[in-house]
Structures are given as structure tokens and as C-alpha cells.
Design a protein that fits this description.
By secondary structure, the protein is of the alpha+beta class. The protein has a four-stranded antiparallel β-sheet with strand order 3-4-5-6, with helices on one face. It has a two-stranded antiparallel sheet with strand order 1-2. Helix 1 packs across helix 2. The protein is globular and about 60 Å long. 21% of the residues are buried.
């Protein structure tokens, strides 16, 4: 018996300057940007379309790699007695994806193949990354500790979740604090730093061509009203509520709609209960932030990047002193 974890590069492959050349060799053709329709909060701009096309080729290449792993298991005669779980860690690294709690950032694939798993079966359970631990123990016949939060979705005792939770705190030098609750029909988001813009300065994000291009289009006034509102408003709502079924791109915030007051109220209680039960950590203290930033600067090689990180740190500290509410 064995347990193996293989990390595939996925969407990060497109950071390689030779990615087009590699993808063409491995896949035989490239995804044409002209055939892509972006979410409505992104403009149909050539830079963004090209990046999205490269991302799709990354996924195609990942699929090819998975196929190679399966062929190796088959060649070794152990495919039919091996459970294979394929999952992602975050959504596309884009302005509303990775690091944020919209579905573009938190909805990832979870695909399982192996003995006892019905082929081509599709389930709509709401699951979390932490379920991987419980699933692995269950498949190994090991009792799952009562303190473990993950659930074995293949257990006969499995109880489906009615909601999943996600969180975002500081990322790099950029300070933020967001929490979300997602059910099958609704998504509730709580922004603890509503006085700061969605696209706060971030050396990691701002170094990407897609973010640079969005900022250029914003400066030129070439984004439409929805794109300006969702990406470049100077502040964010304290609460966001979306009907995921009717509004899968999460563009129509229902939090101020009186018809949804009871739903909003229930989500507030749900999030507060989760935060208490799971001992949700408080924001970093200034002392811890300083320690983390020294570490980040030590690992930042480019002098240009170091200067940008230092500039952002200075801004974060200034914003912290100006915060109207400290929660």
C-alpha cells in the first residue's frame, strides 16, 4: 500500500516565458483567444483574453499529465486498486479569483476515480479542502478522530454540509480580512476592511500583465460601469449577498435589498457561530506584521520588487492608523 501526493503546476505554467512554445509542442495546438468570453466584470481585452487562453491550455496540459500518471499506474498493474483524487488549491489567479472569496477564487475541481467509486457519477455536495484528510483516513480504514473537522464524503455515516466557509487574510504585504459562507443557493461575504479598495496595492498581483492592463484601462476610462464598480471602487460594501443560481458571476449584491433581510440575518449568525466554534484568528498585530514583512523582504530578490513592497507596507501602515472601525 502507498500514499503519493503529486503537485502539478496547473495555471502557474503560464508564468513560464516559453509556455506557448511548450504548450504547442505538448498539445499540438493552442486555444484561440478570439473564442473566449470572459466574465462580465472583465473587459474583452486582448491582454486578458490571451492570458485566459494560456490558462485554458494549462488546464489541457494538466489533463495530459493526469493521463500519464494513470497510464503509469496501469502499466504497473495497480490502477484498479488505487484511489485517485484530483483537486485544485484555488481558482484562476485574476482580479476576482485567487486570494478572493468569489467562486472564481474558491471553486475548484474535485474528481475521484477508483474501486468503490461509481464511474461518471456527479455529486453536488458542498465540500472543503480539509475533507481530504478525513477521506484519506477513511479509505485507509483508519478511524477519523472526533476533533477532525473534515468529513469522509464516501463514508456510510457521511452527513452533507449545508454550507462551506472560506477566509482570506493578509496576502504578501497586502492586509485584508474577508470571510464567506456559501450554500447551494447563496454566497454571503463579510468585508472587515470595507474602507479599502478591492484591488489594493499588491506586488504579487500588480506584477501580472492582466492587472497592469486593468489598471491602464481604468486610468483611461475604458471600463464599463459594472467593471469599475466591482474592481475599482474606492471602497467595498461591509456585506455582500449573492444568489449563486440566478447570478453565478456574483455581480448583483442583494445585501441592501429588504426582501433578503431575513436571509442576510441568518448568514450573519451562521458566520459568527462558525468564527467562534472554529476559533477564527484575529487580525495580525503590528509586531507580527513587521516580522512577516522582514521575512518577505529577505525573500524578495529584485530591488524593484523590494522597493514596491516597501512602498505598499508604508501604505498599509498608514491605512491602519486611519481605519474608522477596528474589528
Amino acid at each position: 500500500p502507498f500514499f503519493a501526493q503529486t503537485q502539478l503546476w496547473g495555471g502557474k505554467n503560464r508564468d513560464n516565458t516559453r509556455w506557448k512554445e511548450i504548450a504547442l509542442k505538448e498539445l499540438g495546438n493552442l486555444t484561440p483567444p478570439s473564442g473566449i468570453k470572459l466574465p462580465p466584470y472583465y473587459p474583452q481585452d486582448s491582454v486578458l483574453l490571451n492570458d485566459w487562453a494560456l490558462y485554458l491550455d494549462c488546464i489541457r496540459y494538466t489533463d495530459k499529465q493526469v493521463g500519464e500518471i494513470i497510464k503509469r499506474l496501469e502499466a504497473e498493474g495497480i490502477l484498479d486498486k488505487t484511489i485517485i483524487i484530483f483537486m485544485g488549491d484555488n481558482g484562476i489567479s485574476h482580479a476576482r479569483g485567487k486570494q478572493f472569496l468569489y467562486d472564481e477564487g474558491i471553486r475548484t475541481p474535485f474528481i475521484v476515480r477508483g474501486p468503490g467509486v461509481k464511474a461518471a457519477d456527479v455529486r453536488s455536495d458542498l465540500i472543503e479542502h480539509i475533507d481530504m484528510g478525513a477521506i484519506s483516513l477513511g479509505l485507509s480504514g483508519i478511524e477519523i478522530p472526533s476533533w477532525m473537522q473534515g468529513r469522509d464524503v464516501f463514508s456510510k455515516k457521511y452527513i452533507k454540509r449545508n454550507a462551506v466557509y472560506s477566509a482570506r487574510d493578509r496576502a504578501g504585504e497586502t492586509v485584508d480580512r474577508i470571510r464567506a459562507v456559501r450554500t447551494e443557493k447563496y454566497k454571503y461575504i463579510r468585508n472587515f476592511y470595507p474602507d479599502r479598495p478591492h484591488l489594493q496595492p499588491s506586488n504579487y498581483k500588480d506584477s501580472k500583465a492582466i492587472i497592469k492592463r486593468l489598471r491602464q484601462l481604468h486610468d483611461k476610462g475604458e471600463l464599463n460601469e459594472l467593471q469599475e464598480k466591482l474592481l475599482f471602487a474606492s471602497s467595498r460594501p461591509v456585506e455582500e449577498l449573492y444568489d449563486i443560481i440566478a447570478d453565478p458571476f456574483e455581480t448583483n449584491n442583494l445585501a441592501q435589498n429588504p426582501r433578503y433581510f431575513n436571509i442576510l440575518k441568518n448568514f450573519r449568525i451562521q458566520l459568527q457561530t462558525w468564527s467562534i466554534e472554529e476559533n477564527d484568528p484575529k487580525p495580525e498585530t503590528p509586531e507580527v506584521y513587521d516580522i512577516e514583512m522582514r521575512s518577505q523582504l529577505d525573500k524578495t530578490r529584485s530591488e524593484t520588487d523590494k522597493a514596491k513592497v516597501l512602498e505598499n507596507i508604508k501604505l498599509m501602515k498608514r491605512w491602519e492608523t486611519e481605519r474608522p472601525n477596528r474589528n
